[in-house]
Prior knowledge:
Blueprint: H1 5-17, E1 29-33, E2 44-47, E3 53-54, H2 55-64, H3 71-91, E4 105-108, E5 112-115, H4 120-124, H5 131-138, H6 153-169, H7 182-188, E6 190-192, E7 198-200, H8 203-212, H9 224-229
Helix pairs in contact: 3-6, 6-8
Amino acid sequence: LTTVSSFEFSLRERVGALAVFQNPAFARVRGVQRPGQEASSALAIVSECVAGARLSDVLAVAEQQLLPLDINAALHLVRQLVHAVAALHEQMRGLSHGAIAPERLVVAPHGRLVLVEQVLGAALEQLHLTHERYWTEFGIPLPNPAGTPRFDQRADILQVGAVALALIVGRPLYREEFPDRIGALAERAWGLTAAGGVEPLPAAVRTWLARALQLDARQSFPSAVEARAE
């Protein structure tokens, strides 16, 4: 990643820009360091440690061991995620996380959700990859595949929608499912009850999910603030 000269600059710039943003739903980033003695050594994002498990690991175990994630638990995490990202969009006008994915979400004790590495998206944008490569290599979905990849607030809400869908279906989204199959997957999604049964998603949840996933650009949420209100 650091072979792109603007990567480190953008990373450090975003660390500085977000230094004033403090929210318990985000692990505070302390800075960027090179642990080695040489200038060419790897970069490290130094953040506050969050006890818990990465959501990607939780979903992987749930899939492998056929452990159901009931709809109430899924929506509990989704609500936390939406409120956290909305706070970022509201307080830091024009800034975004850009790299929201199960790999960068930690489920802390008592079901508390914490976002990490919120400075990474701005740097990844400097790689100027295709939409497909951002998804297949980093697990980052981005809107408008016909245009230039943008790590903006619309990208954040699409990523929130993808995480929400993964929680509802109880497994990681597969690489071949985005973007072409994501609409069908959302339409077929059912909610698991705490008793192990299945039930249709409430119409309001299904509509919200479609707007977050930007299945219809005219109806999509422009940011997490609108998604939170809905």
